[in-house]
């Protein structure tokens, strides 16, 4: 080979796009008893997997996800409130708030879960009263994808 002629492999860069799935929603209205909390004040919903009307995140991209929730208890009557994070009807995280000397308390928890397409994740009240904050976002539910399969 002469001057200016080179031999060797050509390098190429490979780019991968990471799926964008993330949501953040607040609870507008109070709930009580045993029901799925409908965090209906949806602020962020990349990927549109969260449905504020049902309160459910329905997975469209299989992978590993992070979820966190904070539920403000409406107290003042000496009661407690339980809030469970459920995946397909099975409790995967629980939190309790107790009314002792104050009128309000928080129940909070976070999880990392593997989800398949169609899996549902939601927060279920398991007794007590959850405070809705109109537009104040006292009670919130959020999640995002960490790794796609």
UniProtKB/TrEMBL annotation:
InterPro entries hit by this protein: C1q_dom, Cerebellin_Synaptic_Org, Tumour_necrosis_fac-like_dom
Residue ranges constituting the C1q domain according to the UniProt record: 16-149
GO cellular component: collagen trimer
Principal location listed in the UniProt entry: secreted
Annotated SUPFAM superfamilies: TNF-like
Keyword Secreted (UniProt): yes
Keywords tagged on the record: Collagen, Extracellular matrix, Secreted, Signal
Stored Pfam families: C1q
Subcellular locations according to the entry: Secreted, Extracellular space, Extracellular matrix
Gene3D superfamilies: 2.60.120.40
Record flagged with keyword Signal: yes
Record PANTHER family: C1Q-RELATED FACTOR, CEREBELLIN-RELATED
Protein name per Swiss-Prot or TrEMBL: C1q domain-containing protein
Lineage start: Eukaryota, Metazoa, Chordata, Craniata, Vertebrata
